[in-house]
Amino acid sequence: QITTLINHKDKPKRSDKTLQAIQRVGQAVNLAVGRFVTVGEAIANENHELKEEMNIACIEARRAGETIAQLTDVASLDHPESDSHITIFTDKTGVVKAARLLLSSVTKVLVLADRIVIKQIITSRNKVLATMEQLEKVSSFQEFVQIFSQFGNEMVEFAHLTGDRQNDLKDEKKKARMAASRAVLEKCTMMLLTASKTCLRHPDCESARINKDGVFHRMRLALEQVIEIVTDSRPNGENEMAPISIYSGIKEFKNKVEGLRENLYFLSKENLSTMLEVILEHTEDFTDSAYTSHEHREHILELSKQAKMELEQLVSVWMQAQNQKTKDLMEDLEVAILKTCQCMNELKREVHSAATSLASDLLKYQTDHMVLKALKITGIEGNLEAVAEYTCKLSEQKEQLVEMCRLLRHVSGTEPLEITCIHAEDTFQVTGPQIISAAETLALHPSSKIAKENLEVFCEAWESQLSDMSLLLREINDVFEGRRGEKRVYLSLPRPGKHNANLKALKPVKLDTEEQAKIAKLGLELHLLTSDVDSETEKWEDQENEIVQHGQGMSSMAYSMYLFTRGEGLLKTTQDLFHQAEIFATEGTKLASALHAFSDQVHDDDKSLLLLEAEKLISMCKQLHVTAKASAQGKSATFTKVDACILKTRNVMTLLCQLLPLCCKLLRKNKAGNGCLKPAPPWREDKIRTGTNAHTPERRAETFGIKSLENHVTNMTFLETK
Fold it and tell me: Which UniProt keywords apply (predicted)?
């Protein structure tokens, strides 16, 4: 709108339509400024330390907006006696000055508001650190329970603040680092609970103390990294040196080589040779690795040698072309460029194949978690010798997984995925020794229930990271095959501001404490059903199956609705909940369509049952959609509608718990050779992929710090009763 005013061309004749349009724009700018300033003033009133600065910036913005409105008030032109009235037509520089003042003051308001957000996060972090110090020093269970309850609430607050900040970050690299740090905090919260309890129960046990100290140390590092990201600073002013991956090195190298087509003189041959040397040094991570197959190692070495030869040929032709730019030489240069780039593409493909095949084999080998199971059994038996034997095996597995993460980082393809690989490497590096210390504690105290529970928690963290690696591997392959652009996001709800100027129209409606208590049982049932569905989807070998993906998406949405019943999570208002219920119903309908397609391959004995369940699902989803769309006026009617939406969602999830194992059973019967499926054309590949993926980075980022953390805090009530 401001640009429209500034760029307005002066004309001798002005139609009434033009005059009215200019006046409307000026008034719109003034109204928008007024709303914006109201938000700024509300923030100022809540933050006294910046109140004066914020109010000054708001006054400047309001004054500039009013000036623009006055200068565009062209109604006085109709009256000759108002000739002295200054307008945009008589003083365009006035509008330019007002616009500059407005943009300057608006920027000040935004910067001050951002400072307040950063201060809130730092204050929240400081609270968490202070409570952690108290937790480290407690000597009685009663004192620990009280302090941990406070700590849990502070962690939930910190998770919400950093979650909002993560969503607002524009830099994908920072967003990935924030997600990784928040994931550490989420998982470590439960570890801190059980490790501390174990230490309190067995105060003289050295392995228990080592286990607990490791958790506290890791949480402090994660908290520090969050603050580094938020404040955009590093300790002691040092710069962050990110390791260079083979993918990024090849990409930059190819860009330089292809740039020779436009300019033969923009870089030296030494620069190009150095870049290739760095890339080939990194390929030694593959050729020196004990886990790289002989075939891959040989191919990488051959391609490295070929790359050197191609670059030598390129440099030779390039130097000649600089001295004599003939047609033949330029054609030779083009051939050399193409051959060099082709060789680098083949090298990239080979290292990708080496890393992903290793990862795939390792993850398949670890699916049964035999070493973890053996550690639990031998720990309960108090067999220290057997525990020592299996801890050696776990250490070997840890080294393999760490190496896998290092190689995957080289081929991840994007900076956020590189950061995820680094995070995974750190997790395996730290969690391995923590499992060992927890197992040793249990072996020393085999009858201790808390030591057993502690080992379970660390083993679950290990298993969870392995599961995350399967998803990460899939994402890396998606990038390599060019499927990265397909973002499946279903939780992208509008987020009204905390200080909306139009408070009457956009006031968020939340459940009060009494309403939350009424709906708590229903919400808990929904929570249990999401766990059941997640458990069923994990049993499928093909995680890309359309039925699985729809099921995962529905489970994730149902979980966000459960969090709403507790007054937490991403769904802040009843309108958010109803919108989510609509999307959930739509996802259910898509699942029913997938079931119909799948039934075409099923023999008549099983087909009728599958179709019957699919029809039930369609009917339930239609009912939920109608309920979510229905209008509700007043507090009582709104709560009734919320209750109905949650109830109908629960019913759909109950049916989903029956459908998933049925479909999985039919697929397994087919694999076993029982022939329950007809040899029909593949139905999944022919369908357009419209499902939502519950495990995309976006989905994981949105749930970091909330899901498990809130469960831990809730569980404190049970701890107190014990």
Answer: Cytoplasm
Domain that holds residue 23: 1-75+90-113
- The candidate with the shortest Cα–Cα distance to 578, out of 526, 625, 511, 522, is 625
Residue 422 clears pLDDT 80, i.e. is over it: yes
Q: Is the pLDDT of residue 374 over 80?
A: yes
Task: Round to whole Å and give the CA distance between 683 and 602.
Answer: 12
Residue 695 included in any domain = no
Write down which residue in 340, 357, 374 finishes a domain: 357
Domains of the chain: total:
3
Tell me the pLDDT band of 430, cut-offs 50, 70 and 90.
very high
Dist CA 216 CA 218 (whole Å): 6
Last residue of a domain, one of 299, 330, 357: 357
Question: Which residues, at least 6 apart from 677, have a Cβ–Cβ distance to it below 8 Å?
Answer: 601, 602, 603, 666, 667, 669, 670
Query: Measured between alpha carbons, how far is residue 340 from residues 245, 278, 326, 347 in Å?
Result: 19, 16, 21, 11
Q: b/e map of 621-640 (b: 16 or more CB within 10 Å)? A: beebbebbeeebeeeeebbe
Cα-atom radius of gyration of the chain, to the nearest Å?
31
Q: Cα(353)–Cα(360) distance, rounded to whole angstroms? A: 10
Query: What are all long-range contacts of 284-291, with beta carbons under 8 Å and residues at least 24 apart?
Result: 285/406, 285/407, 285/410, 286/351, 286/354, 286/355, 286/407, 286/410, 289/403, 289/407, 290/403, 291/358, 291/362, 291/400, 291/403, 291/404
Q: Which of 193, 189, 182, 174 is CA-nearest to residue 222?
A: 182
Q: What angle do CA 7, 11, 15 make, to 5 degrees?
A: 100
3-state secondary structure of 447: coil
Look at residue 677 and give its three-state secondary structure: strand
Tell me the three state secondary structure of residue 289: coil
CATH number at residue 108: 1.20.120.230
**CB neighbours of residue 681 within 10 Å:** 8
**554 touches 624 (CB < 8 A):** no
User: Hunting for tokens 């007024």 — which residue is that?
Assistant: 34
pLDDT digits (tens, 9 = 90+) for 450-477: 999 999 999 999 999 999 999 899 889 8
In a domain, 373, yes or no: no
CB 165 within 8 A of CB 230: yes
Helix/strand/coil for 515: helix
For residue 438, is it within any domain?
Answer: no
CA geometry: angle 90, 95, 101, nearest 5 deg: 150
Rounded to an integer, what distance in angstroms lies between the CA atom of residue 509 and that of residue 563? 15
- Number of neighbours of residue 417 by Cβ within 10 angstroms: 24
Report if residue 222 sits inside a domain: no
Neighbours of 73 (CB within 10 A): 17
Q: How far apart are CA 389 and CA 370, in angstroms?
A: 13
Rounded to the nearest 5°, which phi and psi values hold at 705? 80, -5
CATH at residue 267? 1.20.120.330
Number of Cβ atoms within 10 Å of the Cβ of 361 = 14
CA pair distance 456, 439, nearest whole angstrom? 9
Residue range 160-219, pLDDT digits in tens: 899 888 888 888 889 999 999 999 998 999 899 999 999 999 999 999 999 999 999 999
The residues that bridge with 677 in the sheet, in sequence order, are 602
Q: How many residues comprise the chain?
A: 722
**Closest-CA residue to 284 (of 307, 305, 306, 300):** 300
pLDDT, residue 281, reads: 94
